Amino acid sequence: GVLEKNVTLKLAKELANELTRQIGCEVVLTRSGDVYLPLEERTAIANKVGADLFISLHANANKSRKAYGIETYYLNFSKNDKAMAVAARENGTSIKQVSDLELILFDLMANAKINESSRLATEIQKSLVESVSRKYSHVRDLGVRQGPFYVLLGATMPSVLVETAFISHPREEKRLASSKYQKSAANAIAKAIKEYAINNKLIASK
User: Fold this and answer.
1) 165: domain CATH number?
2) Is 205 a member of any domain?
3) Which domain holds residue 130?
4) What radius of gyration, in Å, describes the C-alpha atoms of the chain?
5) Integer Cα distance of 142 and 160 in angstroms
6) Closest CA to 100 of 60, 148, 168, 49
7) Alpha helices in 51-178 (DSSP H)
8) Among 97, 57, 74, 59, which residue's Cα sits nearest to residue 146?
9) Which of 34, 103, 149, 158 could cross-link with 113 by S-S, CB 3.0 to 4.6 Å?
10) How many structural domains are present in the chain?
11) Structure pTM?
């Protein structure tokens, strides 16, 4: 079968190439090989290098093999059961523990760039869905959602979590494994980041 860690690493490397090509910016990967990095260390790396943006790439999963689509998250409280379930899965915890995490979030939200993260998530979601839809059929736009994700906690810059497709869905699992899909997704995410960066004066428009 296809492993999320392998797919997302390939996608991250494609995205790094695209960002270097499209913007000429410096990209720091939190991992460059098959090593597990604790969730809280990932944003710590971004903070340490003074990153302007933090992008966490994932492949979604659901007990129902019928669930499919693309969705993008940013850090915030959530009353949505589906968002809480995704957060619990990504955090490696129970939904009850995710609720407990929301209490901790109150203290940390002052530094979280919620509005900027929401705008970045919206740009990425739109670009990704449009790009993939041009090349593939049966693309579902699950929209932009918010949730309490450990991996985004503590980031001092706009940060988002992108669920690029469902690894648990047979058709999307095949897509995720293909370099064509990875290149297409990386190109779309890079375009969105470039658009966001120009609009927010992180880079000059060309």
Assistant:
1) 3.40.630.40
2) no
3) 4-199
4) 16
5) 15
6) 148
7) 81-91, 95-108, 114-135, 170-177
8) 74
9) 158
10) 1
11) 0.90
